[in-house]
TrEMBL record:
Cited function: Catalyzes the hydrolysis of the gamma-glutamyl amide bond of hercynyl-gamma-L-glutamyl-L-cysteine sulfoxide to produce hercynylcysteine sulfoxide, a step in the biosynthesis pathway of ergothioneine.
Biochemical pathway: Amino-acid biosynthesis; ergothioneine biosynthesis
Keyword Hydrolase assigned: yes
PROSITE patterns: GATASE_TYPE_2 (PS51278)
All copies of domain Glutamine amidotransferase type-2, residue ranges: 2-251
Superkingdom as given in the UniProt entry: Bacteria
Pfam families from the UniProt entry: GATase_4 (PF13230)
Entry protein name: Gamma-glutamyl-hercynylcysteine sulfoxide hydrolase
Keywords: Glutamine amidotransferase, Hydrolase
Entry EC number(s): 3.5.1.118
Enzyme class: hydrolase
Gene that encodes it: egtC
Reactions mediated catalytically: gamma-L-glutamyl-hercynylcysteine S-oxide + H2O = S-(hercyn-2-yl)-L-cysteine S-oxide + L-glutamate
């Protein structure tokens, strides 16, 4: 469910990454090639990007399908950035969240996206949610599973965890409480991408020293795309990509 990507590299128009490639995120909203769960990602979309000399990203999110938003098409044509995150959404279940439920979620310098679904939501995470500070729960942008997973990640970041550690801890917590969940997460701070492959596809394409893209699936047929093994934590910058195994929920 859902498709997402994060990009770090030379400054480029948002549309060059999100909508121009032959199998772009725009195309994946109605015709994903490697999505095993769900078929159409039309329950909202969003993009977050960083401007030069400003560490806090801007966002544009909507509740409808990306293909019907001509304002976004115009924005994506002219706005340029060297770091962005974008997602198209297939909601776990129907809700009234609207654009508030669409990734990327944000706080401070961070952008976050969840590709997947929490099993037996919301009952499965009742105890996990109760472990968060009340202020964190009251600050949730939406009542969907992705918003709560983001709250778990953000809580870890505020405690001082490194980005990769925060993602890994959230995945292990949710997987233990809700076995069978799909938890492909993306986290971006403008210079580093952290991601998890847990139950769904994840790929990356790196041009060391210049650019890196991490995505649910390749947006073109370039042979340099590499699939990330399931149960893997990825950390990427413009110069390096590091892969390490994630613990099983029973470990």
């Amino acid at each position: 469910m859902c498709r997402h990507l994060a990009y770090l590299g030379p400054e480029t128009a948002i549309g060059d990454v999100v909508s121009a490639p032959p199998h772009s995120l725009l195309t994946q909203s109605w015709a994903p090639r490697r999505q095993a769960h769900g078929t159409v990602n039309a329950d909202g979309f969003g993009v977050g990007w960083y401007a030069p000399d400003d560490p806090v990203p801007a966002r544009y999110r909507r509740a409808g399908p990306i293909w019907g938003d001509l304002s976004f098409a115009d924005l994506a044509r002219v706005v340029r950035t060297g770091a962005l995150m974008a997602a198209v959404r297939d909601a776990t279940e129907a809700s009234a969240d609207g654009e508030a439920g669409a990734s990327p979620f944000a706080s401070g310098i961070w952008l976050f996206s969840h590709n997947g679904a929490v099993r037996q939501w919301p009952q499965s995470l009742a105890e996990v949610a109760a472990s968060l500070p009340p202020a964190d729960l009251l600050s949730l942008e939406a009542r969907c599973d992705s918003a709560l997973v983001w709250a778990l990640v953000l809580h870890r970041l505020r405690l001082g965890n490194a980005p990769a550690e925060a993602l890994a801890a959230a995945v292990e917590t949710v997987a233990a409480a809700a076995p069978g969940s799909r938890l492909n997460l993306l986290l971006l701070d403008g210079s580093t991408i952290a991601a998890t492959a847990w139950g769904d596809t994840l790929w990356y394409r790196a041009d060391p020293g210049r650019a890196v893209v991490v995505a649910s699936e390749p947006y073109d047929d370039d042979p340099h795309w590499t699939e990330v093994p399931d149960r893997t934590l990825l950390t990427a910058t413009r110069t390096d990509v590091l892969l390490s195994p994630l613990k099983e929920a029973s470990a």
